[in-house]
Amino acid sequence: METFIQIAQFTLAISILVVLHEFGHFAPARWFGIKVEKFFLFFDVKFALFKKKIGDTVYGIGWLPLGGYVKIAGMIDESMDKEQMAKDPEPWEFRSKPAWQRLIVMIGGVTVNVLLAWFIYSAMLVYYGDEYVPADRLKYGIAVGEIGEEIGLRNGDQVIKIDDKTVTRFDDVQIDILLGDNVTVVRDGNEMTFAIPDEAKKSVLDAEERFIRPRFSNIIGVVAKDSIGYVNGVLAGDRIMSINGTPINEWSEFQSVFDAAKGGEVVMQLDRDGEQIEKRFMVAQDRALGVGANVNELLVKDEYSIAAAIPAGLAKTWDVLTKQVRQFKLIFNRKVQGYKKVKGPIGIVEMMAPQWDWYKFWGFTAMFSVWLAFVNILPIPALDGGHVMFLLYEMISGKAPSEKTLERGQIVGFVIVMGLMVIIFGNDIWNLIKG
C-alpha cells in the first residue's frame, strides 16, 4: 500500500508539471495563430491510452510516463516530421512566424514551471507558515558522526559561515556544506575556517543520511508508552540533571552516559518544575530508556500574509534554482562522483512519503518544477534550451540556421538526452539490485 501511495503521489505531481509545462508552449502558440497538432500527457509510442481530437488538436494520454509533448506544426522537433518540413511553409506554421514569437513559444514551458513553483511556495507560506531552526538558537552547537568528523566538524561546533555566506538557518547547513568549499565554525570559543574535502562529500552522498544534527538540551520531550522510563515515572518536561552522579548538560551527553550505565542500576536525578526527583531502576544492556529529546525547543514558525508570501515565495524559488545549478559541481566532480547518485523515476518514487502528505507533496512538486525549468533551458538540442539557442542565433545574426542544421542538432541532442537517461535509469536499476 505504501508503494502504491508513493507511485500515486509521483504520478500526480509529474502529471501536473507536464500538463502545465506543455500548456506553456500551447497557449502562446495558439495566441500567435500557430497550429498545434497534438497535446499529450506521457508518450504515445505506437498507441495511446486515450485520445480525442478537438478542433485542430488531438489531446491524449500516452502509456509511457516519461513526460509529455505538444506537436507544433512546422517545427523541427523530436518527431522529425521531414514530410511536413519538405512542403512550402503555411501561414499557420511555427516556421512562418517572426523569431520573437517563436522564442516566446519555446520559453513558455520553462516560464510556466518557474511561475508554478513561485505560486506553490508562496501558497505554502500562507497556508503552512515557515517552520525552521535558526542557527543562533543552537546553544549546544551541533552533533556529528564519523562522516561529519571526516568533513572536519566536531561535536559542539557552532557553524557560522559557509564560504562567504553567514548561516542563518540550520535547516540549510547540510546542503550548503555539500555545495560549499569551506566552512567557518566557532569551536571552544575560537573561530576557525577549514576546507571541505571532496572525499568527505563523496562519503556523505554514499551514506545518503544526515551527517549533522542540532544538539538539544537535557529536557525530555517525549516518553514512549510502556517503556522503562514510562514505567518508572519519568515524564516529558523533566530535566535530566545527572546519571549515576555524572552531570548532564545536553542530550548527547545523556545518551553517551546512559549507554555506559546500561547493564546495571541507573540513578537519574531529575528536575521537575523546580523539584529535585531521584529515579532508580535496572536497565539491561540491550534496552533503551524510551525517552526522546525535546526536538521542538529550537523551532520557530514565521506566519505570512499573502503580500509577504509573494516576495518570499520568489526568494525560495530562486534559492532552490541556485542550489540545483550548484549541484552540477558535485555531479561532474571526479572525486565526489555525484553522477552516481542522480535518481530517475524509480529513485524519485522511493523518495516520496509512504503516507499521503500534502505538505511534502507540494514541496516536492515546487522543487521538481524548478528542476524541470532548469533542465529544459539547458542549451542542448532536443530540449527547449536548444531551440532557444538557435532562435537567439537567428535574432542576433539575422539569418536562420538551415533545416539540415536543425535536424542534425535535434539528432545530436536526442543522443545526449538518451545517454543521460541511460545513466539515470542505470543508477535506478543498480540501486534496486543492491537493495
UniProtKB/TrEMBL annotation:
Which keywords annotate this record?
Hydrolase, Membrane, Metal-binding, Metalloprotease, Protease, Transmembrane, Transmembrane helix, Zinc
| Compartment annotation | Membrane
The EC number on file is 3.4.24.-
Tell me where in this chain the Peptidase M50 domain is found: 10-419
Cross-referenced Pfam families:
Peptidase_M50
Annotated GO biological processes are:
proteolysis
The prosthetic group or cofactor this protein requires is: Zn(2+)
One function term, GO molecular function aspect? metalloendopeptidase activity
- Primary residence: membrane
Q: Keyword Transmembrane: yes or no? A: yes
| Assigned GO CC terms | membrane
Q: Which residues form a coiled coil?
A: none
Source organism superkingdom? Bacteria
Residue ranges of the TM segments: 7-27, 103-129, 361-383, 411-433
> Where does the secretion signal sit in this chain?
none
Q: How does it sit in the membrane?
A: Multi-pass membrane protein
Q: Which PANTHER family match?
A: MEMBRANE METALLOPROTEASE ARASP2, CHLOROPLASTIC-RELATED, REGULATOR OF SIGMA-E PROTEASE RSEP
User: What family name appears in the similarity comment?
Assistant: Belongs to the peptidase M50B family.
NCBIfam families, A to Z = RIP metalloprotease RseP
Q: What is the protein name for this chain?
A: Zinc metalloprotease
Write down the species. Answer: Dokdonia donghaensis DSW-1
**What are the top taxonomic ranks of the organism?**
Bacteria, Pseudomonadati, Bacteroidota, Flavobacteriia, Flavobacteriales
